[in-house]
Amino acid sequence: MTAAARIREAFDEAGVTGWLHALDIDSGAEIGTGGDHAVVTASVHKLCVLVALHEQAAAGRLDLTEQLEVPLSGRELGPTGVAAMLDPVRMSLRDAAYLMMAVSDNTAAELLLGRIGLDAVNATTARLGLAHTYAVHTFRELLATIKEDAGPGGAQALADPYVIARLRALDPARTNRSTPRDMTRLLSAVWRDEACTPEHGAAIRRLLGLQVWPHRMASGFPFDDVHVAGKTGSLPTLRNEVGVIEYPDGGRYAVAVFTRAASTAATLPPADAVIGTTARIAVEALRGA
Amino acid sequence: MPYVQVHYQSQIDKIAISSLVVDLIRHLECFAAVAEESHFGRAAERLGVAQPPLSQRIQRLERELGVRLFERTSRQVTITKAGTLLLEEARELLARSEALMATARRIRDGESGLLRAALPPDIAGETVAAILADFARLHPGVELELRELTTTQQLAQFASHDLDAGLIHHPCDVSGLELGPVLRREVGVLLPRDAPEAELDAVPLAALSPYDLILFHRAAAPALHDDVLTTCARNGYTPAAVRHGQGASFIRGLILSAHAVALSPRDAHTADRDPDLVWRPLAGAPLSWRLSVAWPRGRSDTAVSTFAEAATRALRETSAVSTELPPRPLHLRPAAEYWL
């Protein structure tokens, strides 16, 4: 069975629809299933925000050590980072970027977007040739569409298929979007120092390596000598991660996995794990194992 | 629907192959007319064209096909053997072309004559009959082509544009679909009538432990299949084996002779009339099938909404659809990455 067929079988087994693209960063060899399919990025788009932030810094338009006041309002956006903190916070732009990448801090991401603007993010992805990648709204606006579409039932209404079917946030045509191939292209540019200067590239790679989540892409590589760096994205029924896997022999692989689960359950370990399983199948196929 | 018309027209203009096909149809019309009239003048009159362009068309068609279709003398036209061989196929193509134009016309006028709809295999016969009768009453001008398809098959046919509407089991991937109201059918257990558990008014899932489980094939609705097994396990029932089957007599046979039980809605099997089987509700109603009518987003018309209405009403009336359960608590974990 081909690797692509095994990947599709793993998606089926996990109860998800999945789209994957994997790229050997040095040889350019690739593998995928649905690699050009339009997908909803969700928090994966924070990677684009991060690259845009560094592009602005490299151009001298901002200083990454510039201090940011995090107001008490706007903390309701998420369960991690400053979004979950109760007291006034002051931190640098780059530390806000750390929280945005390490724990997907929505409030930190919103503040950074407020500083650089959505247009700068889209200008960066366009400059890098990511023709299918586009942000139509900020993370606050994105969550507001879900709240509006879910109606008075709140988060519990998201278990209702009828509600899921009408969420704008799950339709790539109406929300922040990309393709798996665009995302591996972006990661490859970051790892090859083609997206920005080596100094800024190293800072971006460091933050992707500091992500705390072990349950998705990292779960497919249970090896102490393999380095995993990535950024997840999640919304009701959606589970994504894009990242780079580095082997001790120097092999570097950009992998982008986007899934949509049939089940509306918020806790669905097999759907998280299949991101690791399929990434592993793809990387091993690229390595000729 | 002017949008459809304009869109269709613009596609035709862009795609060279379409003009060629339309042209072929026009030439074949001329071929058939001349063959039937055996006379260029009469054929031209019938087609409402002048004779010289008709002759040119026949000549051009003969060049295109590389076959001589008619023997021409000064007085009359005779079809060749090759022409006779091609005439039947030409007529078939013309008939198909007419059917295509007629369907396009009906679609354009918003009254497609055919609705392709599907129901899952476990819907009771009387529900199917009620849907058909209701639809025929509400929408007599449209033929309902009803198919028995699993949820997975329906999703595939929606994607390939082979299905207009269907009744699907949740959960499933509903991207690109619009849904009607979500209905719930309570699921109970089918047991041998002489099983000790048949004595109970409601059977706890844990009491089924000695039995194998008969369930629909996972491929039919994978997420529902997995949900059922998860709920069984959580309630103390992890069957030693899961037997996959759907047909009523197959299930009946396994229950009576293989020490197995089946989970199903009350009306999916005729246990009430079966001397050897009995259906019992599950204690605490831990399981239910959720269904709704679905159709591709933006493709609803009056026929689709009539089907949705008819199916929803029939299910409500015949399948003992119960009301929604009280909502369960939801604890989003930090890895969910969002908060509402």
Brief sketch in words of this structure:
Chain A is an alpha+beta fold. Helix content of chain A is 40%, strand content 18%. Chain A has a single domain, classed as Beta-lactamase, CATH 3.40.710.
Q: Looking at the chains present, what oligomeric state does this protein adopt?
A: heterodimer
CATH topology of chain A: Beta-lactamase
Number of helices, counting only DSSP H or I runs of 4 residues or more of chain A: 10
How many extended strands of chain A? 9
**What overall geometry of chain A do the principal axes of the alpha carbons give?**
globular
Distance between the termini of chain B: 40 Å
Count the beta strands of chain B: 13
- What gap, in angstroms, lies between the N and C termini of chain A? 14 Å
How would you describe what is shown here?
The complex is a heterodimer of chains A (289) and B (340). Chain A is 40% helix and 18% strand. Chain A is built from 10 helices and 9 strands. In chain A, β8 (238-246) and β9 (252-261) form a beta hairpin. The longest helix of chain A is centred in the last third of the chain and has 19 residues, at 269-287. The radius of gyration of chain A is 18 Å and the shape is globular. Chain B is of the alpha/beta class and 340 residues long. Chain B folds into 2 domains: 2-108, Winged helix-like DNA-binding domain superfamily/Winged helix DNA-binding domain (Arc Repressor Mutant, subunit A, Orthogonal Bundle); 115-322, D-Maltodextrin-Binding Protein, domain 2 (3-Layer(aba) Sandwich). Chain B contains 10 helices and 13 strands. Chain B has helices at 2-14, 16-37, 40-47, 51-65, 81-108, 125-138, 151-159, 222-234, 248-257, 302-318, and strands at residues 70-72, 77-79, 114-119, 143-148, 165-170, 177-179, 183-192, 212-215, 242-244, 260-265, 277-281, 288-296, 321-322. In chain B, strands 3, 4, 5, 6, 7, 8, 9, 10, 11, 12 and 13 form an 11-stranded mixed sheet that branches. A two-stranded antiparallel ribbon of chain B has the order 1-2. The longest helix of chain B is centred in the N-terminal third of the chain and has 28 residues, at 81-108. The A-B interface holds A 12, 15-17, 42-43, 76-80, 83-84, 103-104, 106, 143, 146-147, 150, 153-156, 158-162, 164-166, 170-171, 213, 215, 232-237, 260-267, 272 and B 170-175, 177-179, 181-182, 222-223, 226-227, 290, 292, 294, 327-328, 330, 332-340.
